[in-house]
Amino acid sequence: MISPYFCTMEKTLEEKWIEVQKMIFKRFGEQLDEQTILFIVGLQELGKNDADYKKEEKLDIIHIGICTVLSDYGYYQFIGKDDEGWPHFKNIKKLPNEIHGESQQALLKEAIINYFNL
């Protein structure tokens, strides 16, 4: 049986996720998925919004977004920027093996919510 406390927390997460989506919609005029929001976070951390990026660079930017939002959870640590201004992170601990699928998605949503201080 699922505890009422868990249901309340889950609802709060979803309510806060809707707030993030509304904020993003106001800024960009469309609803964006988690990957695209992580790309935006990565761009913000990179500080180079106006460039055309190759596919590999876009994946690197999403990785920057993931590392940034999960750093507050102790999974990554910012170690500095390279000569071209790209941030680099050190993996501190692995995600637990039991976290995948919906649990991993919930963790990323929660981390994105925390990034935007909602």
Structural overview:
It is a single chain. The chain is mainly α and 118 residues long. It has one domain (4-115). The chain has four helices and two strands; from the N terminus they run αααββα. It has helices at 4-28, 34-46, 55-71, 102-115, and strands at residues 76-81, 87-91. Strands 1-2 form a two-stranded antiparallel ribbon. Strand 1 and strand 2 form a beta hairpin. Helix 1 (4-28) packs across helix 4 (102-115), helix 2 crosses helix 3 (55-71) and helix 3 crosses helix 4. The protein is globular and about 45 Å long. It starts with a helix and ends with a helix. The mean pLDDT is 86.
Intertermini distance: 30 Å
Q: Please state the average pLDDT score.
A: 86
Tell me, briefly, the overall form.
Answer: globular
Strand content: 5-15%
Major β-sheet profile: 2 strands, antiparallel
Number of contiguous helices: 4
SSE pattern, N- to C-terminal: HHHEEH
As laid out across the biggest beta sheet, the strand order is 1-2
Q: Rg, please?
A: 15 Å
Oligomeric grouping of the chains: single chain
Number of strands: 2
Number of self-contained structural domains: 1
Helix content: 55-70%
Low-pLDDT regions: none
Instruction: Give the helix/strand class.
Output: mainly alpha
